[in-house]
């Protein structure tokens, strides 16, 4: 059912780490959750696709996108009930939409697209490619990092999402993110 892809209503501040693979999203998600004494939503696609790789030796296929989206939102809705003022999301459905379009010649399942655009977040942190590439079973585009970054940024612009680009070392990124989240908590944020 389509409700499986929809966020539950919540008053918490929702933050998304967004961007190409191997750009520090998970590291920063954990750091922010620790800083705000809250929970974070892991990227369901990694768990799902690692199991698929281990069991079948296969990578992501178009038929996997909806189960991934469903699992991501289920995790997000579950964690939102446990969050302390702020929920840190290691990804969202808009990121899944971008990957689907990149890998499948512009195709995105209409259900995924609908909820990628309808689900809302308070701020996106777009992680830049100035982190070292870490190879694993699932990552496959080290030579296309800048192009992928530009694709992710264009998606945020096209869909009018409020975002901040995070660059630099872990400490710099963390301090920048905290500064912006603190403004949201204080309701002092003015988007340009």
The counted number of beta strands is 5
Count the domains: 1
Helix amount, in percent?
40-55%
What topology, given as strand order, has the largest sheet? 2-3-1-4-5
Pfam family, one: AAA_28
Organism: Bizionia paragorgiae
Protein name: Nicotinamide-nucleotide adenylyltransferase, NadR type
GO molecular function: nucleotidyltransferase activity
Q: Could you walk me through the main structural features you see in this protein, from its secondary elements to its overall organization?
A:
This protein is of the alpha/beta class and 192 residues long. It has a single domain, classed as P-loop containing nucleotide triphosphate hydrolases (Rossmann fold). The chain is 47% helix and 11% strand. It contains 7 helices and 5 strands. The protein has helices at residues 25-35, 44-56, 65-80, 93-103, 110-118, 145-158, 170-185, and strands spanning 13-18, 40-41, 86-89, 123-127, 163-166. The protein has a 5-stranded parallel β-sheet, sandwiched between helices. β4, α6 (145-158) and β5 form a beta-alpha-beta unit. α1 (25-35) crosses α7. The radius of gyration is 16 Å and the shape is globular. The protein starts with 12 loop residues before the first strand and ends in a 7-residue tail after the last helix. The model has no long low-confidence stretch (mean pLDDT 91). Pfam families: AAA_28 (PF13521). This is Nicotinamide-nucleotide adenylyltransferase, NadR type. It comes from Bizionia paragorgiae. GO terms for molecular function: nucleotidyltransferase activity. Residues 14-173 form the NadR/Ttd14 AAA domain.
